[in-house]
Amino acid sequence: MKKVTCLFLALAMILGAIGCATTPTETATPVTETAGAVDETTDAAATAGTIPDDQKIVVSFASQWFSEEGRADFIYKAAETFEKENPQYKFEGITISYGDFNDKMKVAFASGETPTIVYCIGDWLESWYEQGWIAPMDDYVDINGRKDDFAVWSAQEAAQRDGKNYGLNIETCPYGGLIYNKAILEAEGITEIPTTPEEFLALAKKLTHDDQYGFIAANSSDNLSHIMQESLPWIMGFGGIIADKDGNFMVNSPEFVKGVEYYRELATTCAPKSMVYNTQRQLFFEGKAAMCADGGYFVTWAESTNPDLTGKLDVAYLPLPTKANNTDIVYVCLSSAATEEQKVGAGKFLEVLMRDEFQQNWLSGCNYPVMMKSGITDEYRANNPWVGIYEDLAANGISGEVSGHETSSDEIRKIIAEYIVMAIEDPTSDVQKLMDECKQKLEEI
Fold first, then answer.
1. 293/315 Cα distance (integer angstroms)
2. What is the DSSP code (8-state) at residue 40?
3. Residues 6+ away with beta carbon under 8 Å from 313
4. Which DSSP category does 363 fall into?
5. The predicted structure's pLDDT at residue 283
6. Residue 165 bridge partners (DSSP)
7. What is the DSSP string of 236-269?
8. Which residue of 66, 212, 216, 240 pairs with 93 in a disulfide if CB–CB is 3.0 to 4.6 A?
9. What is the pTM of this model?
10. Interior CA angle at 366 toward 354 and 303, to 5°?
């Protein structure tokens, strides 16, 4: 199986040096006969060893997960099983960073040369659907027949259009978990996590000294996706929302402004100033930062990066009035540009990924609700009791889709992030005034 990706030649010039899988050579098999032909002829030929590797049908999968050791390993293990059971196929993983993903995929979709399977969050799905970039999955994966087996069926229903599934809910990722290094807190004489925002801010400041930081927080303009990911759990915890159910923007409401002001103080007094967030994460991995707010995957990521952290990390709720939090409802979608053979192969790969073994592997890498209920076993929950926090947060999670502005959600979030960055870059600025301006700009979209 090929772990190192190659390039779409056309996209390399457009997107820069991102890894993409080569488009496989199309066969002359008619689309109406493809599924049978793939199963009956190429499968038999591959088993007999008559299909050269470079003539196999490529099923490619684009995601930022291939840059994360834990989840990348689990995906490749599933791919090994998929290739063994379906030797006419070859799997290729494509790494695209989270912050650039939607923008780069828009260019890829427009070019007509896209991966077979594509990572997608709820914020993007409606726009991709309306553009015709993603295909219904029901002919390739049994989704509706497994309704009772899904961990969060409401999340799966959100991907349905006219009764068809345009995405497969692979996980539900809340970012409102407070991850902390017990060893750092204990060394400072801290035995309990504060339960109010004021107490928490005081603790984060106390833990910030010398070359140690109390809390890492996205605070630079290099990645606006990280700004929204990290600030929204706090803003929502104070009751702030981007828009009400009628689509009226609420970014200048007292609750939203209070959340921005609080996040600004955390980001400017307790975290490295104007530092790329992934660099800040490295400080946490090195044991130089005490706390962060992130998804459950961060625990596994930290421990796999620095095994010395194993057993030293724990998770609590953020000390906020509500559990409402920014939650990525994560899907995988099929590209409309994929050949029928690729779509059939993608379905076979996703069916492997849905098996209990791989769902449990997936959960151990992300530590929050995955696709199927079978992912979380009683034994795993007993050994990792804080996983229940992420289950609870997922149940209270709010998708990034903006009510009344679903197809513009990504653009709206970027504009809001730009104004949050303005507030952070000038700690003396009037947040109310900034968010009033932000609302005006949003209303011009």
1. 9
2. I
3. 179, 180, 181, 182, 299, 302, 303
4. H
5. 96
6. 160
7. HHTT--SB-TT--B-TTSHHHHHHHHHHHHHHHH
8. 66
9. 0.77
10. 135
